[in-house]
Amino acid sequence: MNHKKTYNAMELKTAKGSLIIEGPIPPDELSRLDFHEDLVAFRPPAQQHKALIEIAGLPEGRIIIVRDRNTIVGYVTYLYPDPLERWSQGKMEKLIELGAIEVIPKFRGASVGKNLLRVSMMDDAMEDYIIITTEYYWHWDLKGTGLNIWEYRKVMEKMMNAGGLEWYATDDPEISSHPANCLMARIGKRINNENVQAFDQLRFMNRFMY
């Protein structure tokens, strides 16, 4: 499959300064930018920066960033699901995962996440994919935001909706383990019925188990 990537960008004015949201960014460009020390949600900043550079080098990998001058202050990643996850079991070429989204605390509440997703979807090639994201409450920064589980879930859902992702039912055990966890997806305009059916089979793998 030809994983076409078309660069898009926008300027976002916030109370704390203007930001550039842009991507997909190639690995060499990512390596030249500084990575903000407050991007700690998934692993230490230096390691996460390295991980983003690696993802950007994958044929299907896409990194959209938020930049404050020369410093990355937020990002979203898209790549094939982890081989250990159920979502990779169908070996679907047209299914990619929104794996991580993060914005530094300084710029939270300024619709940065929503606009990251909007810029991601400006690329027409996204219509060739089913894009999924799995939301687990134990990854959420409840302490830093002061929100409870349901308030945070609402914020996450609204943000994902800005990128066209909607809630989908699934019998995945991890997602089903807590009612706040959820699967969200966006089905591209050029996705055929065969791919939709394959996705449905991945969503409900325990249907016939008694």
UniProtKB/TrEMBL annotation:
Write out the GO MF terms: acyltransferase activity
- Which UniProt keywords are listed? Acyltransferase, Transferase
Q: Which SUPFAM superfamilies match?
A: Acyl-CoA N-acyltransferases (Nat) (SSF55729)
Q: Does the keyword Transferase apply?
A: yes
- EC number, as in UniProt: 2.3.1.-
Per UniProt, residues of the N-acetyltransferase domain are: 35-119
Question: Nucleotide-binding as a keyword?
Answer: no
Task: From the UniProt record, list the coiled-coil ranges.
Answer: none
Protein name, please? Acetoin utilization protein AcuA
Species in which this protein is naturally found = Rossellomorea pakistanensis
